[in-house]
């Protein structure tokens, strides 16, 4: 029974990471921005060196390096990354099961992979970088009526490397230039479409897993998504106002007065003497990875929600047991 309860809990936790129409819109905007960036790069910056060895390095770098940068930026910009870091720093991941950790990492990697995969797909579909990288590996013997006198001691590698650059190849190769580019573009676009198909299949399987593992019905899941977004928005705005009030009180204590704008004066008048610094242990309790819980059938949708229930019930023992360890 205990093992079954643990599996059920972890499946609930996994399902919470595949949600929210806002996330889908944001991911779509990231993909569109990546497409625009890749197109501008191809138009204004891409320049194949047309030299053996350098072609491969330059072509692969043009596909891989921006994708890696986008991936790292995506990891850094994902709140789940820092939730996981905080969980391991504050609680040493003692309450984080392997399935839950896998779900968090999967969420981070999945979100961060949108931009790099889009970059790689567009690069492959356009074919410029792939053609530059692999032109030198096209064997002259695979071309019809290729002049043997042009192959040279290097087997024609140097000549093949020059084919992507217009005007850099000898006149005798003009007849083969379009054939080589067409062949390489075919290979590049085939890889691009295979990558698209693979990603589509992966997304489909993830959506199926989400529907099968979700602890919520459709309506409750929509509510949970709205709750989470609203809580984060209100928390951030309130935290900013709280920090402003604390700063105003400190400045006033130092100078004897504080120069405030209209909104700050209104906040000071409404909350004079009511603002207190939040204890570090409470900050830690509402920070980190959240494992979905219910209390007597009442869903607890976030760490802050859980903290608030314990605080309202004045259950400090339960708070320390459930949220500090």
Overall description:
This protein has 14 helices and two strands. The protein has helices at residues 2-15, 21-44, 54-77, 79-91, 98-112, 114-126, 128-134, 157-162, 174-213, 218-255, 262-270, 280-285, 303-312, 316-323; strands at 293-295, 298-300. Strands 1-2 form a two-stranded antiparallel sheet. Helix 6 packs antiparallel against helix 9 and helix 13 packs antiparallel against helix 14. The radius of gyration is 29 Å and the shape is elongated. The chain starts with a helix and ends with a helix.
Indicate the percent of residues in helices.
Answer: 55-70%
Strand content bin: under 5%
Number of domains: 3
In total, the number of strands is 2
Along the chain, the helix and strand elements come as HHHHHHHHHHHHEEHH
Principal-axis shape equals: elongated
Distance between the termini: 23 Å
Mean pLDDT: 80
Radius of gyration: 29 Å
Unreliable stretches (pLDDT < 50, length at least 5) are 1-21
Largest sheet: 2 strands, antiparallel
Structural class: mainly alpha
Count of helical stretches: 14
Strand order of the largest sheet: 1-2
Membrane topology: Multi-pass membrane protein
Protein name: Calcium homeostasis modulator 2
Organism: Muraenolepis orangiensis
Keywords: Ion channel, Ion transport, Membrane, Transmembrane, Transmembrane helix, Transport
């Amino acid at each position: 029974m205990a093992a079954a309860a643990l599996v059920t809990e972890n499946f609930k936790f996994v399902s919470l990471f595949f949600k929210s129409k806002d996330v889908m819109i944001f991911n779509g905007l990231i993909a569109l921005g990546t497409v625009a960036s890749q197109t501008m790069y191809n138009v204004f910056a891409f320049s194949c060196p047309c030299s053996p060895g350098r072609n491969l390095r330059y072509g692969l770098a043009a596909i891989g390096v921006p994708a890696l940068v986008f991936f790292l930026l995506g990891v850094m910009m994902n709140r789940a990354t820092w939730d996981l870091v905080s969980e391991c720093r504050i609680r040493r991941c003692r309450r984080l099961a392997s399935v839950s950790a896998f779900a968090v990492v999967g969420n981070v990697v999945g979100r961060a992979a949108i931009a790099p995969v889009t970059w790689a797909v567009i690069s492959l579909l356009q074919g410029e970088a792939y053609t530059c990288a692999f032109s030198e590996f096209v064997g002259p013997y695979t071309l019809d009526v290729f002049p043997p006198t042009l192959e040279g001691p290097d087997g024609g590698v140097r000549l093949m490397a020059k084919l992507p650059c217009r005007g850099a190849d000898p006149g005798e190769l003009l007849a083969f230039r379009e054939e080589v580019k067409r062949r390489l573009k075919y290979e590049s676009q085939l890889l691009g479409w295979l990558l698209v198909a693979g990603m589509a299949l992966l997304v489909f399987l993830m959506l199926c897993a989400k529907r099968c593992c979700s602890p919520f019905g459709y309506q409750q899941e929509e509510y949970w998504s709205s709750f989470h977004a609203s809580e984060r928005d209100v928390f951030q705005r309130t935290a900013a106002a709280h920090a402003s009030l604390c700063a105003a009180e400190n400045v006033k204590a130092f100078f004897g007065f504080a120069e405030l704008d209209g909104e700050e004066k209104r906040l000071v008048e409404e909350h004079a003497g009511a603002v207190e610094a939040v204890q570090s242990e409470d900050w830690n309790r509402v920070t980190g990875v959240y494992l979905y819980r219910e209390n007597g059938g009442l869903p607890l949708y976030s760490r802050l929600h859980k903290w608030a229930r314990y605080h309202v019930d004045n259950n400090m023992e339960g708070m320390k047991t459930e949220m500090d360890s």
